[in-house]
Amino acid sequence: MKLSKQFPLNALRVFESVARLGSFTRAGDELGMTQTAVSYQIKLLEENIGEPLFLRRPRQIELTEAGEHLAPRVSDAFNILIEAMASMRKATEETLTIHSTATFAQQWLSRYIGSFQLQFPNIAVRLVTSGNIVDFQKEAADVAIRWGRGDWPGLVSHRLMKLDYSPMLSPKLAAEIGGIREPADLLKLFLISAGDSWWAEWFAAAGVKNADLSRYPKSEFGTQILDASIAIAGGGVAMLNPGHFQDDVAAGRLYQPFELTGNDGRDYWLAYPENRRNVPKIRNFRKWLLQKFDVEQDEHVTQKRQGLKPSQ
């Protein structure tokens, strides 16, 4: 049922208090209103209904028959609203919504989030992966783990880990060309997501001139997870963060031929709205996460807006 703008909700709230307390004065004290304001709201409600709700007697009031009929129903209605609000607050307090890049979610969070759940069993975790920068004002999110410089306006951000990058490939693929002995040997193979600026930066740092990356397709697969999957399958060389794929290296699925890594200043950050820094579930997650990364809990509050590249 659609409530009319003229529905006297505030007057009903005043009526419930007066009927329960049996006094205009005590109801005013409870609601933070003057006795005159209380009387005015009751008058509005009586005019809306078309019948008096109280008998005004010297130093006391009594409910009329109409008032006796209305009072318990109004009380029940407000109790239902109170219970509904309490239920929603409890659900909100007990569910932590994390927005994360897909790579970080799969390669790190999925491995360690269980220890957070064990430490805080009353907090349910909802994980959302996306390559977009979450808008905390428009989307349901408590915290975000993002790739960038930590300069998001209005957010508190904590650097978690450096996002270094280096070429990685399947050992079998490397063996097919007799091994990778120098950086230029990588150019004998297909470079996955060759349009990524990291390739040009890494080859320049490695001393390879005229790498001619323009001969490769400008395909982009959006996440390091997909690039790594292609590399593991022998489909080429991927530019990856070695820290994310140590298990694959240990299992012989991936191989990092050179220790040289690059870093363009964009790292992984924990971010959340400045005005929510003291919300218990956010405070608990922040403390747990920063301890995992052995990061001191100093805060970087961003003040300016800069262009942001999609998260990795």
From TrEMBL:
Q: Has UniProt tagged this entry with the keyword Metal-binding? A: no
Which key words are in the record? DNA-binding, Transcription, Transcription regulation
Leader sequence residues: none
Q: Pfam families per the record?
A: HTH_1, LysR_substrate
Answer whether the UniProt record assigns the keyword Nucleus to this protein. no
Where does the HTH lysR-type domain start and stop, copy by copy?
7-64
Cite the Gene3D superfamilies for this sequence: Periplasmic binding protein-like II, Winged helix-like DNA-binding domain superfamily/Winged helix DNA-binding domain
Which stretches are annotated as coiled coil?
Answer: none
**What protein family does this chain belong to?**
Belongs to the LysR transcriptional regulatory family.
Q: What is this protein called?
A: LysR family glycine cleavage system transcriptional activator
